[in-house]
Design goal:
Blueprint lengths: L12 H17 L2 H19 L4 H8 L2 E6 L2 E6 H27 L5 H26 L16 H10 L6 H25 L6 H19 L9 H14 L5 H9 L11 H17 L5 H17 L3 H25 L12 H31 L11 H10 L4 H11 L3 H29 L22
Antiparallel strand pairs: 1-2
Length: about 475
C-alpha cells in the first residue's frame, strides 16, 4: 500500500519528510499512556532539581513575580501561581466537560450511578480525616486534618493511563468523577476552614461571568474564542472571592452544551451540499484554488459543527493539557525538598505518620467501604464493566494526594517543621499509592475488556449503558 506521504513531482521531498514526522508525532501523542509517562518524568525532574546543588534556583525560578493587567484590573503572582491557578483551570475545564458528557448519556446519567462516585468521594474524605486525627487530635497539628482528604486528579489519571488498555473505560470514568467531586470538596474545605474572609464582590463578578456564558449560549454563539472573556471574568471573580480559581474551569466545563445547535442547517446537510458543489467545481476545466475554497471552507466548518461542543472542547484541548499544562504543573509543584525533616520531633512524626496512613490506607478503605455500603443498601450499583477490583484500584490511585495535599498543607501548617513533615509524607504516600495502584492494576485487571477510547482520551459514542 502506497504511503500517503510518498513524494511526487509536485511535492518537495523535505515537505514529505516533514509531513511524515508530524504524522508520527501525532500518533505518538494520541497514545494515552504517553501523557502519563511525560507527567511522571516532569515530576522526577522537579524532585531532582529541588534536591540538587542548584536547588535554590528551583524556588527562585518558580517564585519569579509576574503581573497581568487590563486597565485597573491586575493580577499579580509567581510563575507557580500562573501554572497552578491559571493553566490548571484549562485542565479542569476538560475534566468538567468529560463529566458533563457522562452526566448526559454516560456512567453518571442516572441518580443510582451518580450516587456511587459521590458516596465514594465522601468516604474517601471522612476516613482519611479520622485516621489523621487519631494521631494528631488535641495538638497544634490537628489543623492539618484536611491534608490527606485531597486527590491529585492530574497525577491519578496519569498513573492510570500507564496501565493502558487493560483497564475498563468505566474505571477511568469512575476515577475522574470521584476525583473531581473530591477536589470540589477539598476546595470547599479550603474556603470554609482555611480562608479568613471571603470577598463577596468577587462572587458577584464570577456570577456575572456565568450569566454572560448563558447569554452567549442562548444566542447560539459556538465559537470557542467568544467564551474566553466570560471565562476570564469567572476565573478573576473566584480568585478575588478567595476560592481556588481552578473551580472556574470545572463550572465552565459542566456548562458546556452536549448538543450542537447549528445556526442555519444541520451539519450533515451542509456537508452534502458543499460536497456536491466541490465536485461540480472540480469537474470544470477552468477551476482555480479560489473557486474551490468556498466549499472546502464549508466542509471544514461542518466537520467542526458535527461534533457536540462538549466533545470539541475535549478533543481540542486534550493535547495541550496532556503535554503542556500537566507537565508544567508537575515541574512547578513536585520539587519537594527532602531536607528539613526532624525525625526526633514527636509532632513532626505524628504528622508524617498520620498523613501517610491516611492517604495510603484511609483513601482506598474509605472509598471501598462507602461503595460497599451504598451497593448493599441498593442505593446504587457498580457501572457495567467495573468490578470490585476496579473499585480498589480507584481507591488506591485516589491516595495520590500530591500537589493538592501539599497546597492544603501550606495553608494548615504555619510551622515550617510541620509543613516539611507534611510535604515529605504526602510525597512518600503519593509515590506508594501510585506504585500500589500500578501493581494492583497489572495483577488483577490485565486483559479486562475495555470500551474503545478515541485519541483525545474522550470515550467514543459506543458507550456501555448501565
Amino acid at each position: 500500500m502506497a504511503d500517503k506521504y510518498s513524494a511526487s513531482p509536485s511535492i518537495p521531498r523535505p515537505q514529505v519528510l516533514t509531513a511524515r514526522a508530524l504524522s508520527a508525532i501525532e500518533r505518538f501523542s494520541h497514545i494515552e499512556a504517553v501523557s502519563g509517562i511525560v507527567l511522571l518524568l516532569a515530576a522526577m525532574a522537579a524532585l531532582i532539581w529541588a534536591n540538587s546543588p542548584i536547588a535554590d534556583s528551583y524556588e527562585h525560578f518558580w517564585n519569579t513575580q509576574i503581573t497581568l493587567g487590563l486597565g485597573d484590573f491586575t493580577v499579580s503572582g509567581s510563575l507557580r501561581f500562573l501554572v497552578n491557578d491559571g493553566l490548571m483551570a484549562v485542565f479542569f475545564l476538560v475534566v468538567g466537560a468529560e463529566i458533563r458528557q457522562e452526566i448526559n448519556d454516560g456512567a453518571l446519567s442516572s441518580l443510582k450511578l451518580a450516587a456511587l462516585p459521590l458516596g465514594a468521594a465522601l468516604g474517601g474524605v471522612v476516613v482519611p480525616a479520622i485516621i489523621y486525627l487519631a494521631f494528631n487530635q488535641g495538638t497544634e497539628a490537628s489543623t492539618g486534618w484536611a491534608v490527606p482528604t485531597a486527590t491529585d486528579i492530574a497525577f491519578a489519571v496519569g498513573v492510570l493511563a500507564l496501565l493502558g488498555k487493560s483497564i475498563p473505560g468505566g474505571v477511568r470514568v469512575l476515577l475522574l468523577a470521584l476525583a473531581i467531586i473530591d477536589d470540589i470538596v477539598a476546595i470547599l474545605i479550603i474556603a470554609v476552614f482555611y480562608t479568613a474572609t471571603l470577598d463577596y464582590l468577587g462572587l458577584v463578578v464570577a456570577v456575572s461571568g456565568l450569566v454572560l456564558v448563558l447569554i452567549f449560549q442562548r444566542m447560539g454563539i459556538s465559537k470557542a474564542y467568544a467564551y474566553i472573556l466570560p471565562g476570564a471574568i469567572v476565573w478573576f471573580g473566584l480568585l478575588k472571592t478567595g476560592v481556588h480559581p481552578t473551580l472556574a474551569g470545572v463550572i465552565l466545563g459542566l456548562m458546556t452544551p452536549v448538543n450542537s445547535k447549528p445556526a442555519t442547517e444541520r451539519p450533515l446537510d451542509t456537508i452534502g451540499h458543499a460536497f456536491h458543489e466541490l465536485m461540480d467545481r472540480l469537474s470544470q476545466s477552468s477551476n482555480s484554488p479560489q473557486e474551490v475554497a468556498k466549499p472546502l471552507k464549508q466542509l471544514q466548518q461542518a466537520q467542526r459543527e458535527i461534533l457536540p461542543p462538549v466533545q470539541r472542547v475535549q478533543c481540542g484541548l486534550h493535547p495541550w493539557v496532556a503535554f503542556g499544562v500537566m507537565p508544567l504543573f508537575a515541574l512547578a509543584n513536585a520539587g519537594v525538598s527532602l531536607g528539613g525533616f526532624n525525625l526526633d520531633d514527636a509532632a513532626s512524626q505524628s504528622v508524617f505518620v498520620g498523613v501517610l496512613l491516611a492517604l495510603v490506607l484511609g483513601k482506598p478503605f474509605g472509598i471501598v467501604l462507602a461503595s460497599f455500603v451504598l451497593t448493599k443498601l441498593n442505593i446504587c450499583k457498580l457501572p457495567v464493566g467495573v468490578t470490585w477490583s476496579g473499585v480498589w484500584l480507584v481507591g488506591l490511585l485516589a491516595g495520590i494526594g500530591f500537589t493538592m495535599s501539599i497546597f492544603i498543607a501550606s495553608l494548615a501548617f504555619p510551622d515550617p517543621a510541620l509543613l516539611s513533615a507534611a510535604k515529605l509524607s504526602v510525597l512518600a504516600a503519593s509515590t506508594g499509592a501510585a506504585i500500589m495502584g500500578l501493581i494492583w492494576g497489572k495483577l488483577t485487571m490485565l486483559g479486562t475488556a475495555r470500551p474503545k477510547v478515541v485519541a483525545s482520551g474522550v470515550r467514543n459514542p459506543e458507550r456501555v449503558k448501565a
